[in-house]
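Dear colleague,

Thank you for sharing your sequence with our group. We've completed the structure prediction you requested, and as agreed, I am returning the results in plain text so they can be pasted directly into your records. Please verify that the sequence below matches your submission; if there's any discrepancy, let me know and we will rerun it promptly.
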Amino acid sequence: MAISAAIYVRISSDPDATRRGVERQEDECRDLADRLGWTVARVYVDNDVSAASGKPRPEFERMLADVAAGAVDGIVVWHTDRLYRRAVDLVRIVDALQSTPIRTVTSGDLDLSTSSGRMQARILGAVAEGEVEHSVERMKLAHRQAAESGKWRVRRRVFGYKLGGQEIEPIEAQAIRLAATDILGGVSTSEIARRWNREGLRTSGRQLLSPTGAKLENGHGSEWTSRRVGEQLRNALYAQRVTYNGQILTGVVGQWPRILDDDVFDAVAAFLDGRRQPTRKDRLWQGSSVYRCGACHPDEGGMLPKMEVARRGGIPHYRCRVKGHNRRDQRRLDDYVDSIVLGRLARPDALDLLDKGTGVDLPALTARRDGLLARIDSATGAWSTDDGLDYSDLLDAVKPLRDQVAEIDRQLAAQAQRDPVAELLLAEGDLDTVWSGLSPERRSKIIDVLMSVVILPVVKRGNVFDADRIVIEWKR
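Please find the predicted structure tokens below.
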């Protein structure tokens, strides 16, 4: 009677999903089955599954069930280590396959019905388990050496970088720098998440590189949450820092472009880790604690008391805490202050409002950045129309230009951190749109840097907004 055989094939790692390893095993097992005169009833394939990890092997379990049900009479494997590499697995196999003949291509027959056969199986299992341990030791050593040499070891695409880590993704990198500035300015991670989602930014998804360098999958990513923004801004890769086993390696500099300067990254990480926790909720109104009551006498510091927001008839109003003092409609007052700010920033001499103490020539930096981007666009256009140019030629041509752009972006982000007005003037797009897109926290900081806003008591009766009772004094 012909034996109905099962072929079991397995390979521990197949990151490129080529299946070449299991296909080679199957071919050799079929040859052996032909020589034995066995009929192959079914092939069980566990691809990219390690027998040493203890993780489930679905096809292996299905094969044991089929043997128990009498669906197959014999098993053909390429080597016994395809079936088991741990002693605990051998116990199950002995129980399930005692009367089932097992033939292997490279390591002889396995007879589990006799004590000598079971001893041979245990010896083979011990050897296989030792090989696994040695392999793990070599792998750990290789990972450690790669980390100490500063190599990029992340297979997935990291937000802010192109796949492989050797090039910055400019729009994402700029968003990271601005977010770092905002965090240190008191903006919440929730607000940053909302802004990134509005701007169409998404997480890096499941875009991966295999160990051979092949691109495996390009996921679309998902929307940002407060938690994910906080985790992202703590990523040590942005400061060219190398981690191993969760610890930053001292003195090792990553071999990839930097997005955040060390001092900025450390400050952001310290803030997010709770050493400098914010003491209040997100600001809802740009004038809270910025607008001041002109009906009051100056406090001990020579400043007029701050105005806060309360609701009257469901409508928010700025009010002084002293009963009977100033009260103004929040929307009307904010709209008026906005018009004053934007009118000043739209003037040709708006750059004169920037902090002069930094020693940074922002107009020259922005002009240089625009020139570099134009050269990158020109090189890309030339590559797209010249069939004789390889993509590698384009990368070689634009990499130094992109590095210069990244360095300018770092300087601009550092300037924006020091001066909130610079953040607004450096932003791309219509000034009104950029202003309305800022959080109340950022608008309040810009207002407070540029001007003092004092609210005088009303002299006209009725629901009339009197701009003459709003006193603006410029600080710059």
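Summary note from our side: The chain has a mean pLDDT of 77.

Kind regards,
the structure core
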